[in-house]
Write a structure and sequence with these properties.
By secondary structure, the chain is α+β, with helices and mostly antiparallel strands. It has one domain. The strands form two sheets. It has a three-stranded antiparallel beta sheet. The chain has a three-stranded antiparallel beta sheet with strand order 5-4-6, with helices on one face.
């Protein structure tokens, strides 16, 4: 891992390929997590279930404009990391890795595959430091009520 003060970090994506239980189905892919982040025990347990595929050297980039989304991800109780992959690929080839749910959801809306896994604690700390540095919550605004009774009298 790199310096946690950065806005970018390099990780390896770990995916699991399992045989489908459906007679006409093809392989079922799932996102196990990241290296660093997964323990040897988790990897050996997953290897018993299917084939493990590694996708090295992916960058997780944080942007100050998305700090509110990172904040909500951290405050959800179960922070997640998302991997986006084209839908038509037999072997998922990750296009993007992000901790921004809004970004992942926009890819879901366009038909791309989006996998998620728990955010490793080291990355939680990294995202938390970034959010503490860059997140500025919006100040509450008072709504002005419409004076509907004045308009009714004018008619």
């Amino acid at each position: 891992m790199q310096d946690l003060a950065n806005d970018r970090i390099t990780v390896s994506i770990v995916m699991l390929k399992q045989a489908s239980t459906h007679p006409w189905g093809s392989a079922v892919w799932s996102f196990l997590g990241l290296l660093p982040g997964l323990s040897e025990a988790e990897l050996s347990l997953a290897q018993d279930k299917g084939d493990i595929h590694y996708f090295p050297d992916f960058s997780v980039q944080l942007h100050p404009l998305h700090s509110d989304s990172y904040y909500h991800n951290l405050m959800s109780g179960k922070p997640k990391i998302y991997v986006v992959s084209p839908q038509e690929e037999e072997i998922p080839k990750p296009l993007l890795i992000t901790v921004d749910y809004d970004e992942a959801a926009s890819y879901m809306e366009t038909g791309e595959q989006v996998f998620n896994a728990p955010l490793p604690s080291a990355l939680c700390d990294w995202v938390e430091q970034f959010v503490l540095t860059h997140y500025q919550p919006e100040k509450p605004k008072k709504r002005r009520r419409k004076k509907w009774h004045d308009q009714a009298e004018k008619r």
